[in-house]
Design brief:
Blueprint: H1 20-30, E1 34-38, H2 49-52, E2 56-58, H3 63-75, E3 79-85, H4 86-92, H5 94-102, E4 109-113, H6 131-136, E5 142-144, H7 149-161, E6 166-169, E7 189-192, E8 197-201, H8 206-217, E9 223-227, E10 230-232, H9 236-245, E11 248-252, H10 261-271, E12 282-286, H11 298-305, H12 309-318
Parallel strand pairs: 1-2, 1-3, 3-4, 4-6, 5-6, 8-9, 8-11, 11-12
Antiparallel strand pairs: 5-10, 7-9
Helix pairs in contact: 3-5, 8-12, 9-10
Length: about 325
Amino acid sequence: MNGISSSGNSNNRKADNMTYEELLASEANKNSNLYVLTAENRAAIRNLHTVMKDRFIDVGIAEQTMIGLAAGLAARGRRPVVHALSAFLTMRAFEFIRSTAGLPNLPVVLVGAIPGFLSEANGPTHQAIEDIALMRMIPGMQVFAPSSNDELLESMRLALAADTPSYIRFFAGDAPLEKPIYGSVPEGCWYSEGTDITLITTGFLLHETFKAKALLENTGKSVGILSLPQLSPAPAKAVLKALQSSKKIVAIEDHFETGGLSSIVREVFAENSSLIKIPQPVIHCISLKTKWFEPLLLPDVLEHEGFTGKKLAERILKNE
């Protein structure tokens, strides 16, 4: 791939047999209009400049400038993909995203690093836990929260194929060992169906959700899992199926309760209540409610905030 070895970066090697960086290099080789921009956020793309030359631009710590530049490129037929820390990308540059990319509906792809709990030891200024809500508010904006490298690559492919702006919560970790029984981006990935409880989650918390599922099943319950890699447009069909098939729905997210996954589940319920069986399911949301999380290392964050598989199961059983 003109400078990026498919054997390099082996700790990021996933089932798709391609890293995020390799995907962008491949797309750039095919499309001379593809530009990659970054605000000093090169962790996942540190070798791309060798492939893209002048089409790789690091603006420094200047997220607003980067969005203005990306919008200008998009308005002239280029396909910009921009990178920054999620908190600064979606908050510091929000007005620029809204007005220069969202308002004219330009196909700018926004990639946010260390979203949600992945910010771990950083304090509230660096915690992107309202990013999904902010991006969902922009008309036409696609929003993705992949749970694995495979879903990250598929999210990027969908974003590059769209003629609207997109926001991707960057996560390139391993996929669960379990394979979905059906479904894919954008309407969700079903891993199992449960008549007692369906756990709906997004992003890397899918892994802890599987642990919670096993513990809940040990109590004799029928438990399903629905993972939602795309949150806007809202995956209404997938959520409605869960609402129609389970006695209880549990939304699990590393985000404020307002505007994220919890809101999506409740919105789908409100809009489709006449299609849901009687008695209607109980909806329980496990989120950050209205507080920032304690800045600790990731395993400690999950434990402290109650998002380990064990803590999730305990919270769900306690809520019954």
